[in-house]
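User: Hi! I'm working on a homework problem where we have to compare a predicted structure to a textbook description. Could you give me the structure for the chain below?
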Amino acid sequence: MRLVVRTFSELCLTVGTLIVLFVVYVLYWTGVQAESASAGQIDTLQRAWADAPLAPPPAPGSSSPPPAPETRPYAPGKGIAVMYVPRLGKDWKWPVLEGTGPGVLKKGLGHYAATARLGATGNFAVAGHRRTYGDPFKDFPRLRPGDAVVLTDGTTWFTYRIDRGSYRTLPTDVGVVAPVPKPLRKNAAGYDGPGRYLTLTTCEPEWGSSHRLIVWAHLDATQPVTDGRPQALGS
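Assistant: Happy to help. Predicted structure tokens:
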């Protein structure tokens, strides 16, 4: 009997240690990994922009024809932009990579591959973890209508303004990332026609994934990066 009790006690101690190690991994180590990976992605983007900058749009009033829009597909798993959301903190910034697979979302935010390009007509839709891997969207429910979501591709700043925040729905509600976002619930406000939209998605509840939280925004302003930071980001 004493041997059974001792064996059971040792088993409980082992299981308890494994649980503690798992919690440390989820709460701390994935964050360390994500911080390093996202910083690396941003550094890679900035170096690529410096080495081969895209042609910026012409200045207002210029007689020069606008450059042809970029139509090449985004490369899967590669960085395409950096996102800033002032509501989530003055130091909040995350790279946006192409795709939404688990490996991509460990490094930053993910662009839904079938949705529009940044700044283009349609819906530029982005997913991010709410918890683990740096908790990029931990404070997602704090987003409010009128909040700015600012992105840059290295030549242009794109400032989107949130129209509706924290719409809760099911993972099967694919209309939220349609070119003209349309929620599943009939009484939920979507959009009536084509525009330049942004959709952000994350998991709900905070430590689960049975539902999704959604915010929608419209493109409010653009400006060349040579003009400095947009007003939404302050000085």
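For your comparison, note the following. Helices lie at 2-51, 102-105. The two ends are 72 Å apart (CA to CA). Good luck with the assignment!
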